[in-house]
Amino acid sequence: MLKNNKILIFDTTLRDGEQSPGCSMNLSEKLKIFEALQALNVDIVEAGFAIASEGDFEAIKEISKIAKNTKVCSLARANKEDIDRAYDALQYASNFRIHTFIATSDLHMKYKLRLSKEEVLENIKNSVKHARNLCEDIEWSAEDGSRSDFDFLCQCIEVAIRSGATTINIPDTVGYAIPDEFKELISKIRNSVPNIDKAIISVHCHNDLGLAVSNSLSALDAGARQVECTVNGIGERAGNASMEEIVMAIKTRKDFLPYYTDINTKEILQSSRLLSAITGFTVQPNKAIVGANAFAHESGIHQDGMLKHNKTYEIMNPESVGLSKSKLVLGKHSGRHAFKQKLIEMGYNLGDNFINDAFKRFKSLSDKKKDIYDKDLVALVDNEVTLNDEIIKLINLEVKCGSTRNPKILVKIDYKGKPIQKTESGNGPVDSIFKAINSIVKNNAKLELFQIHAVTKGTDAQAEVTVRLNEDGISVNGLASDTDTMVASANAYIVALNKLIDKRKRRTSGIGISSSTNIK
């Protein structure tokens, strides 16, 4: 056990988070997320599952090369091939961990592994010993630990520690546990496993019953000193424990949670926004800590209280998570310096070239909108994040539609440096736009998601459009915003196609797409 009350933050956004349907990321996107996690000062980053694909292997390898103070980790099943592959990817990091796992519940052993208890114990011993020969820092996980037979679970933990594991992770793999029950489980493990003092206890909770954060915090009280979590709580099914909620609960309620983390909380909002922009997974407005309404007050009673003392309705300062309280108003007459300062106050730290491009888009937007809100700027900047390295660019869009005519769409795009124009008619303007683009950029992608929401209030609000395409098992998201919903729809579709083309190239060149893995 750690001798103090520091809680290690083990972030698995790039591994378990990416396993969330529609959340797969390419190499450049993973590197951006890792840089954000380093800025957060996360203790350990699980960068992927090296054996899953060439794409995962390359991502772990490249992340290992740029890692500074953050420890890099790869997941591996309990076999020599997985563990060797993890080591090959991680060896470029100065500080790394191999994380190996095997299921320990009767249900998983009988139907998934088809192994006896004796065989599972032997696998634990052999796999952990092999990993320890390659690396000093070994984490072992009991998949479906919260539904495992307690005595057998303790046997497994004892064998793992004796074989060289330095961290023991107890996952609530299917989000089944209740906080008091999970706390008791961790407490019983501490009191029943004779060599548990030689390892740190970790927990990895899923959110199927909406209790992932509660279970994680309960485990700390029982002696766990590492929490596995993700930015925005993304992950398999209902997701993982939310990193920002765990960290801010510890920071805010020290009277009940006398612990601390090394997380730089002022980077929380920035990392949340970056992940949303890359994956297309919009954070719900009422999401704790990072939701758009988390620090918003509309009620007259609340506003009156806030004007007199902010703590009447705020239990934490918005600045502590990277949100500015600045009331700087931006409009069509604002200059570049004011624009840049506003973005800095909102938590963005961008290069001059990026600022110049974003400022041009801001000027164009301010000519169309009377009021510019913070969320308009978030959409504008995050839209830039998703539009890098374009093979396809929208040049012009003309839409003719109405109740008495079939829609007629003229689309002009730059495709591989060549302007191409097409006219199309379909079942509504959006369908017509997508057909016109598809007639230029040949693909077999199926549209899995088309979603529109207004970034702010008012008839001149920007429309933010999310598109998800799937072609031959490759799933990509496109996100774009514009005051014209049809333009936003066209750009979102083009962003998705650009990502699809990139993933096709990677698959053809042997740098594959992460395979689906239903683990932990």
Report on this model:
The structure is a single chain. The protein has helices spanning 13-17, 27-40, 54-66, 80-90, 106-113, 117-134, 150-162, 179-192, 212-221, 243-252, 268-279, 300-308, 336-345, 352-368, 374-386, 429-440, 485-508, and strands at residues 8-11, 44-48, 71-77, 96-103, 138-143, 167-172, 200-205, 226-229, 392-402, 405-415, 418-424, 446-454, 463-471, 474-482. With 520 residues, the protein is α/β, with parallel strands linked by helices. It folds into 3 domains: 8-279, Alpha-Beta Barrel (TIM Barrel), CATH 3.20.20.70; 300-386, no CATH class; 392-508, Alpha-isopropylmalate synthase LeuA, regulatory domain (Double Stranded RNA Binding Domain, 2-Layer Sandwich), CATH 3.30.160. The strands form 3 sheets. An 8-stranded parallel β-barrel has the order 1-2-3-4-5-6-7-8, surrounded by 7 helices. Strands 9-10-11 form a 3-stranded antiparallel β-sheet. Strand 13 and strand 14 (474-482) form a beta hairpin. Helix 2 runs antiparallel to helix 11 (268-279) and helix 11 crosses helix 15 (374-386). The two termini are 23 Å apart.
